[in-house]
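USER: Write out one fold?

ASSISTANT:
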Amino acid sequence: MAAGSTEKLSIVKAINASLRKSLETDNKVVIMGEDVGKLGGVFRVTDGLQKDFGEERVIDTPLAESGIVGTAIGLALRGYRPVVEIQFDGFVFPAYDQIVTQLAKMHARALGKVKMPVVIRIPYGGGIGAVEHHSESPEALFAHVAGLKCVSPSNASDAYWMMQQAIASDDPVIYFEPKRRYHDRSEVNTSAIPGPLHAARVERAGTDLTLAAYGPMVKVCRDAAAAAAEEGKSIEVLDLRSISPIDFDGIEESVRKTGRLVIVHEAPVFLGSGAEVAARITERCFYHLEAPVLRVGGFHAPYPPSRLEDEYLPGLDRVLDAVDRALAY
């Protein structure tokens, strides 16, 4: 993709273009992970990068997530900007100790003298018919940890720009990639001026209720808003984009207008990131709310076999049910 051009890209291609741009402009950027080099990653997100930038910049690692993240921490201490791929969401847990006790705490431990510019890419969520440990949504586990930033794009333009911003950050960023949206296409303008990394964005304006989501659920919420419009309901769709920090000011602005909020995410509702949004907005918008803040998400159960995942994942009907319940007050 030529610099400064506008092109319709899939999320996969947009992330690839963003990584390529970072490798070109900063020789301290390195990419690490299982099969990211010769194979180009299991989802082909890093396809062609090792061929063009060499094995010292795009590094095939052993199958050892703790070692991959530990090595990235060491590289960051030496001035590099590592971008680490965790092959699937459920594979991140061997590295959890390194992430939460070392990566997230190093800046504070060093009294601000040490930076940790590490990006950890995690393809997450379901909808691809995968086996156990390949379809999980662990974002709340990382959002709870002080010292980590957590973001998730829902479209190709955000995928491109949010990756650029994550790599440029001196703080560690967990970059959650919605794998079932990898091949969704949208316009990407590489000469645009991106908004702040952690700012929410209104995807569709409305007046009756706010649907807030991030990553894979934004499309479901757009579809729900379109379906509700056929019945005369005006639904605002808010793409949160960032899971930590959360743009509570942006959510509050929308809710003060609509008076109702439904939060949607693929992860289980129980202690999910939507719980924090619900609590904060109830505190901040109590006198503006016309109904309780409602949450829609997965069930508090292990992710099911692929034949049952359509029953597990929140879809159009469950979102519209919550919309109807909120509007009934």
Q: What stands out?
A: Residues 11-25 form the longest helix (15 residues). The chain is about 35% helix and 20% strand. The CA atoms of residues 19 and 25 lie 10 Å apart. The two ends are 50 Å apart (CA to CA).
